[in-house]
Amino acid sequence: MSSLSRELVFLILQFLDEEKFKETVHKLEQESGFYFNMKYFEDEVHNGNWDEVEKYLSGFTKVDDNRYSMKIFFEIRKQKYLEALDKHDRSKAVDILVKDLKVFATFNEELFKEITQLLTLENFRENEQLSKYGDTKSARAIMLVELKKLIEANPLFRDKLQFPNLKNSRLRTLINQSLNWQHQLCKNPRPNPDIKTLFVDHSCGQPNGARAPSPANNPLLGALPKAGGFPPLGAHGPFQPTPAAVPAPLAGWMSNASAVSHPAVSGGAGIGLGASSIPAALKHPRTPPSNPSVDYPSGDSDHVAKRTRPMGLSDEVNLPVNVMPVSFPGHGHGPAFNAPDDLPKTVARSLNQGSSPMSMDFHPAQQTLLLVGTNVGDIGLWEVGSRERLVLRNFKVWDLSACSMPLQAALVKDPAVSVNRVIWSPDGNLFGVAYSRHIVQIYSYHGGEDVRQHLEIDAHVGGVNDLAFSTPNKQLCVITCGDDKTIKVWDAGTGAKQYTFEGHEAPVYSVCPHYKENIQFIFSTALDGKIKAWLYDNLGSRVDYEAPGRWCTTMAYSADGTRLFSCGTSKDGESYIVEWNESEGAVKKHYQGFRKRSLGVVQFDTMKNRYLAAGDEFVIKFWDMDNVQLLTSIEADGGLPASPRIRFNKDGTLLAVSANDNVIKVLANTDGTRLLRTFENLSYDTSRTSEAAKPAINPISAAAAAAAAAAATSSTAGLTDRGGASVVGISGMNGDARSLGDVKPRITEESNDKSKIWKLTEINEPAQCRSLRLPENLRVTKISRLIYTNSGNAILALASNAIHLLWKWQRSDRNSTGKATAGVAPQLWQPSSGILMTNDVTDTNPEESVSCFALSKNDSYVMSASGGKISLFNMMTFKTMTTFMPPPPAATFLAFHPQDNNIIAIGMDDSTIQIYNVRVDEVKSKLKGHSKRITGLAFSHVLNVLVSSGADAQICVWSSDGWEKQKTRLLQVPAGRPATAQSDTRVQFHQDQIHFLVVHETQLAIYETTKLECVKQWLPREPSAPISHATFSCDSQLVYASFLDATVCVFTAANLRLRCRINPSAYLPANVSVPNVHPLVIAAHPQEPNQFAIGLSDGGVHVFEPVESEGKWGVPPPAENGSASSVPASTPSVGGASGSEQAQQR
């Protein structure tokens, strides 16, 4: 049945309900299977109408459909059986046993025997499991709670439990509109038409020249319904709360067990259900214009057009805000209000953490003590007053043997880990860290620098998205939530798991524990926008609502615990801050001030009982809790990311804000400034235990200073905290003790002067090359794919969280060509709509999915996938043009056919390659030859072949005419260096379209296609880091390669000889932890042979060019046998054979 036919059924259901055709309504519900009326189902169960209950269920599921369905029917038939026994009607009980319950014997014979034995008991309550069975009414109510959980969890009932959000008498309205339009088309319209039938089109019979009447004052089919507000729809009310035994303080959020019959909600702004407070008909009247030839929009069509918005909010939130008492960067509004004096608005401290802050929290008692977690897994503890970093801990699994095998495998495959949340316990004696991989670590804090390991919990499969402390039953607990869709409660002392809450259908994004009137509960939000609430029991969720934005939402209470707020951002970048009416479970206030779509997920915090703050549009925005209008915004001296992360201290005197370049800015009000000054000239010894000898407070800062003062080759101290021992080894591998001045390449002197000893060009300092880190977006954790546009004026990145980023360079005085350059910063570009290009993702953690994309030759669209369906995006509008090929299998590599953009080669994770025609939406061929997922595809338009590579280290050549396999060869992996099981093998054609580059973690190689023979090979030295990615320069004269120790090497492509090495000290701050931050992908500019870009594991993208005085990357090494060698060499050259080639091996 088509979508419109399905909607017509809903309109008919509404009409039948309004006309009181009750039996017919439920018959249509059952026969269509579109809407399961939970209220009707409850009534029938309460009344014990078991035949009708099963008959109604049969329209949606059968006994053997799935385990949920089986349990539903079993519970109903068991209850029917027990009621017959309770009435001592044994003949009926036997009949139920034989006809209804015997079917379950094949699945659980022991259970059936136990049920049968109940016949032998005088009172079945003698059975221990049934000893608490009460009377019939209470038993049915208890069973209903279980049935509702089963129905809600049953995938067959998905999208069938909520009636569409319709205006009342919608079918009548549509008929009215149709009749009005028919009357408009009458040649001789009468002022008072007499409508007697709907079976034929209306036509006025007698000419009188009158125009059509307005339906507003002369309706054709009875009075039009009043616009706005939902009428009571009986069984079809848009909201039926779930009955459950929940204490009264959560009324409105959680339904009461005694409330069996629930009235329909008839308006307001309930979560996901409320009606518009500004009726659409008042803004767009239904009255047609006097000219019958002009189309007119109806109020209802306007309502339909708005249905895609987050529902449950008044229309006013979508109206343009023309007057805003705030100045925004780039907007021409009037001056901002002066911020109230009690707002922290003065930048008092700037702290360099060394990596991007992801989460911050002030100590609850020592309010200048700031805890920080970063995107590379680092934990920092700062005394803000004295600017001292007291503690720095890099991520490390404390006991790997105690971790689950999935976690161990994930860490071996990709050790990069980010912090999702840091938080202090209420007393400040513990703090917790939630990581992007499975793990929660709890530290104990003993003052000063004394931080000790307390607990490590392998908490969730995938990421741990949030963490909180709570004290149910006066016992400190840790609450976590994660990508596995669960919330878990742990004993903070022992780490023992106390509760697991299941019920979300998407990864759980945040948790918010609270209590009212001694009732402890937890709110949770998930990435599908659902809000649920849980008591500390195993009875399931008491709430199932939708948050504004329906994506990433966090919740927080005011300091006194009386007011509840939430902040959310939708997938399209729409952001919301709202206050909730807890007694009704509805939105109470919607705060205004998000003028355009956000570039990141907006973070917010509450300041005591008065202010709200959020990071958005490169500023911090403030609201008074009692006023929905934006109060003020603060730029914090500039340098903030698009969506800065923020955190108040307990008294609201300090505000920590994440800034660009790994900086944390601490803003203060007058009291906060006074507080910080008390530490200005004091060492922070008051809370420390006495120490005979104290280690350096900030070794990374000290290392950074040392690195700035001396060359990296002679300053090992500058590399200790970066995990850069391998870099030091590299510097000394060639016995090269030149100063930095000597290291600078001298191409004009050295390139052709063979009398001089060739030396590898080492780049160790930022001044030795031109590099630019592109503007960041903190929603990104790591860059999975990177490419320049074919025009050369933009860079497109695909992050591991399925979001695309596009940086565009503009023409200017400093950049006359408008091409990509390291000399001018580009703009992180978005279309005027503000939407993001975001790939479809599966239920699994997108960070663990394989990302891939391919750009069309004219840069007009990009094909992309991140483990879910393949999406085709318009590069100008960012709109999704289409999606196709839902997994499994999932796409792992994409390549456009060179002669036909409608033909795409798609590598799959099941080892096949599918040749897909976009125009006809059809797979033309399926190629089989690999044994593991496809990791590389490249077309040659000269040879008319497709070369493929896989995680099996195998290379295959396929004809692009008939798609038959021509040749296959296993990669020559050097002895003693076995590749990891899922190691990627990439392929890329040389400019001659005959040779191709093969990139593997163990080697670089050049292959000749027709014979599939290796003609050149370069192997890293044994202890050096694996290769992460490599690419030809645009003219195929160079090969750029990145490594997991954060070095980047430049090779001469003709002989794969190393000519230049860029060490991490040249582009990463000295206090960044290597190898936590390293290049994952590398891309070459399409027109500038000496320009390339790298995508990092911390979400950064860097563009590199040689310094203008040199113009090239290093000096070519001496040619073998005294002559320059071309790519088609006859014999393989395996990594460094000549005497000067120790430097060729890393």
Strand content: 25-35%
What Rg do the Cα atoms give?
Answer: 34 Å
Arithmetic mean pLDDT: 77
- Number of separate helices: 17
Largest beta-sheet details:
5 strands, mixed
Shape: globular
- Biggest β-sheet: strands ordered side by side in the sheet: 29-54-53-52-51
The share of residues in helices is: 10-25%
> Roughly how many Å apart are the termini?
64 Å
Question: Which ranges are low-confidence, i.e. pLDDT below 50, for 5 or more consecutive residues?
Answer: 207-252, 254-337, 683-755, 1121-1142
Derived from helix and strand composition plus strand pairing, the structural class reads alpha+beta
The count of strands amounts to: 57
Pfam family, one: TPR1-like_2nd
Region (Disordered): 282-303, 1107-1146
InterPro entries: CTLH_C, LisH, Quinoprotein_ADH-like_sf, Topless_fam, Topless_Znf, TPL_SMU1_LisH-like, TPR1-like_2nd, WD40/YVTN_repeat-like_dom_sf
Protein name: CTLH domain-containing protein
